[in-house]
Amino acid sequence: MDNWLNVKVPGLPPLPVEPRLGGRALPRAVSLYVCGITPYDATHLGHAQTYLTFDYVVRLVRASGRTLRYVQNVTDVDDPLLERATEIGVDWRDLAREEIALYFADMEALRVVPPDHYVGAVESIPLVVDAVTRLLAVGAAYPVRTPETPGGAGAGDVYGSVAADALFWEELPIPARDALGVFAERGGDPARPGKRAALDPLLWRAERAAEPAWDGGPLGAGRPGWHIECAAIAEHWLGGVPTITGGGSDLSFPHHHMSASHLRQLGHPEPGMTMHVGMVGLDGHKMSKSLGNLVLVSRLRAAGADPRAIRLALAAHHYAAEWEWDDGQLVAAQRRLGHWLAAARIAGSSPRIPGGTPGSSAAGGLATLVATALAADLDTPAALDAVDRWADAVLARPEGDPGTVDPSAVDAVDALLGIDLRADPPAPDTRLANQVLSLPRR
Ligand code: 5CA
Ligand code: ZN
């Protein structure tokens, strides 16, 4: 599937940092799987915080001299997308196409580095069919006949068996007594008749009237379940369990737990780590498409917000924190950006440190200072503080004192924090207002 436009990242000399994320050191070769959007509504600030978090991971991992393979999916067929399309009376494919285009425009404006592979659920159906077939073969999955299904060989839904995974309960990321409730809240169907256990997740949904379906070979016509989608894509594109599996904290259970369980039963016992971004809230509730309490990135951009300020407003919060948005944070971020831009203008016209190589001088510590903050479990607030102190020092110099500057400071801010201090602010993208409104919203 298409990807969004690449971002130019200035080269920095390899930085002497050993990133630790969630308390764990990273190997030299890192694979990253980030759970992407379900394209039924526009990118809100919660999504932006999630994708910006992994953008800092990408920039840090590469700047530390490690290799990175990075995959992000897009759930371009699933119940919420189909339900929303029906509700607003558009074809689900048009809704998906339009929302993916808007997501790309938002990611490009925010200068988020794209994944190596951006992979859709629909194009991955052969991978899912293969994975489900293998799970059936090892007894980790079973069919549940459906009266609604138009018969035929293999016709019926397929469920994964949690009882087949010896580590399922041991690895559960939430208290066992909460599992059923959370499963039901987040797309699960605990009461479905015919299941062996209430928590068993759907792997393959047999064709129903008025629902899209694809040829599932031995499984019969149908469409993929959600958790197996991410397991199958990760297995194919990253060779098994990713070093890091990421998304918002609402994906910890059941989604990432189920996907990890599927991967184990597909023959991938290797351990991986998950990184979960705290939920961004508004007015006392998690920002979510289903609640409708959204601040859209595209609306802020159309209203003239500088995407660099949106970035700074979000980076002021540690990724794991849960926090609430208010517009004052954008005002404060815009002020901070102005301070940095003023310093960058002076830095750009000052002599460089004689003989200095990027990142090597005393002041040239900015790249190292920012990378060191990010290496400590992605401490973006500390990284922003480091740039504040650099800007303070540049701006505090007596007038007429040319001083010396860290030649790599502006590049460091660009490469590690995705903020280009050389660029002019973009004009508000007024086309966006129309694009955002072209589909009816509730
Ligand atoms: N397509 C699936 C993942 S495979 C999905 O959850 N899509 S989503 O569109 O609902 O969410 C996209 C990403 O944004 C997920 O990683 C989700 O955890 C994250 N997310 C959603 N709401 C918030 C929020 N309020 N704050 C932070 N992250 C959020
Ligand atoms: Zn996922």
Summarize the structure.
This protein has helices at residues 45-63, 79-88, 92-109, 125-137, 176-185, 226-238, 252-265, 297-302, 307-315, 328-349, 365-375, 380-395, 409-417, 430-437, and strands at 20-21, 24-25, 29-34, 67-74, 117-120, 141-144, 157-160, 202-206, 222-224, 244-248, 273-277, 280-282, 285-286, 323-324. It is of the alpha/beta class and 442 residues long.
Word description of this protein:
The protein has 442 residues and is of the alpha/beta class. The protein contains 14 helices and 14 strands. Helix 6 packs across helix 7 (252-265) and helix 11 runs parallel beside helix 13 (409-417). It is elongated. 5'-O-(N-(L-cysteinyl)-sulfamoyl)adenosine binds at residues 35-38, 46-47, 49-50, 73, 75, 230, 247-248, 250-251, 277, 279-280, 286-288.
List the helices and strands and how they pair.
Layout: E1 20-21, E2 24-25, E3 29-34, H1 45-63, E4 67-74, H2 79-88, H3 92-109, E5 117-120, H4 125-137, E6 141-144, E7 157-160, H5 176-185, E8 202-206, E9 222-224, H6 226-238, E10 244-248, H7 252-265, E11 273-277, E12 280-282, E13 285-286, H8 297-302, H9 307-315, E14 323-324, H10 328-349, H11 365-375, H12 380-395, H13 409-417, H14 430-437
Parallel strand pairs: 3-4, 3-10, 4-5, 10-11, 12-14
Antiparallel strand pairs: 1-2, 6-7, 7-8, 8-9, 12-13
The structure holds 5'-O-(N-(L-cysteinyl)-sulfamoyl)adenosine and zinc ion.
5'-O-(N-(L-cysteinyl)-sulfamoyl)adenosine binds next to helix 1 and strand 10.
